[in-house]
Amino acid sequence: MLGPNGYGAVQVSPPQEHVVLPGEGHPWWQDYQPVSYSIDNTRRGSRAEFADMVARCRDAGVRIYVDAVVNHMTGSGSVGSGPGSAGSTYAKYEYPAVPYGDGDFGDCRRDIADGTDPAEVQGCELVALSDLDTGSAHVRGAVADYLNDLIGLGVAGFRVDAVKHVPAADLAAIYARLDEVPGYGGRPYIFQEVLDGGGPESIRPPGYTHLGDVIDERYHDQVGAQIRDGRLDSVLETVRTGMAVESDQAVVFVDNHDSQRSDPSISYQAMGQRHVLAQALTLAQPYGTPKVMSSYRFESTAQGPPSTGTEAGNPAGAITAPTDCSGERWFCEHRDLNAMPTFTNAVGEAPAVERAEDGAARIAFDRGERGFAAFNASGSGWTVTSATGLPDGRYCDVANGTIGADGACDSAGYAVSGGEVTVTVPPNGAVALHVDALCAEG
Ligand code: LAG
Ligand code: CA
């Protein structure tokens, strides 16, 4: 039940044809090595299945954003030549199914050495992946055709991968060719992965905000660590003063598929219930557009999602649906957040106003007069009476209750009276009240 609980969109893994690496145990990162832009017969299913998913989500009011790999094709370390998941032949710098040939790749055929030099970062190879010459009209056209194919199926946005490695002018030329999204109108929503590794502004997040939103990894690095360590009292100050770009240009998250592996201490696997609190607080604080992680247990960083058939080398349709969210393999973190995204939607741009604090690990704040939320990173419950700007009324606790198809919330409620509310915040948990989720009378 994503839509009723406030989720506007879901980001999905790169859907294009990819390398198949049985010798490496079919790692999750096969998807980040494109062989062609066919979306038929990948490890994640057929074109028809993809189109059906997009349509069903659209009908439920939930958009699909695709992780778009546009900087590169395959690497040399992994495999010599195909076939790819859809059967296309290829070799590094030769992808006849697109078609791309040797001339469609940059001249610098070695790894990036100096991460602060734009010419290197954008013209050489990221972890040995063949680097597309995105300055060429042919490459721009092929990438735009791929994205427009997805838009034609109803895909409403893109997380553009490895953007730091593509000149802004090349992205501008590609984005300018994109169609409007059928049904929604307007161009697709674009958010760009720009890791902030230093160097001039042109290869840092501010160098791309004129083209779309950017991922602000500082949020993960700083706020993620603060919440992990129980320092909730620093969070609002950090998002006010320590972030990379303006709030309306940023996408933020506690963890993503890369950070879970590079910094596993900030993940559900390591943090358990504290991670639920971290994502709830991310949805409540005022900086950026929040993104929630929902993931699976892994024993090694390369291990892919739960699947069948990988032993047989089957790349297609092999990933199993997360029917079991026990944590044996799928965690399904979003389910623990209940209707918390409705809080984000209800409060909009309203400013955060600190209302209560008890040591470093317990905070409560308003979002203008539209929401009140309290967080408790300790091992015992926190009962607090706090001032709040919420109008008098009885509110549903969306951090602990879901909203059903009938629009009703199934949590216990809290009464606001005369500018005051008393709530009990569970250990490593949250309470969240907002003006769009009043309890039914009684
Ligand atoms: C990204 N953002 O810029 C993705 O978020 C990240 O997950 C991607 O790396 C990366 N850029 C390229 O799209 C992932 C894995 C890498 C993997 C790469 C290509 O984190 O480990 O590299 O996808 O599949 C792998 C090997 C490398 C090897 C390379 C080429 O790990 O050692 O050089 O393949 O063969
Ligand atoms: Ca590049």
From TrEMBL:
Domain of life per record: Bacteria
Keyword Hydrolase: yes
GO MF annotation: an example: starch binding
Biased amino acid composition, Polar residues: 299-311
Keywords: Calcium, Carbohydrate metabolism, Glycosidase, Hydrolase, Metal-binding
Ranges for region Disordered: 299-320
Cofactor(s) needed: Ca(2+)
GO BP term (any one): carbohydrate metabolic process
EC number of the protein: 3.2.1.1
Catalysed reactions, semicolon-separated: Endohydrolysis of (1->4)-alpha-D-glucosidic linkages in polysaccharides containing three or more (1->4)-alpha-linked D-glucose units
Entry similarity comment: Belongs to the glycosyl hydrolase 13 family.
Protein name: Alpha-amylase
Species, as recorded: Streptomonospora nanhaiensis
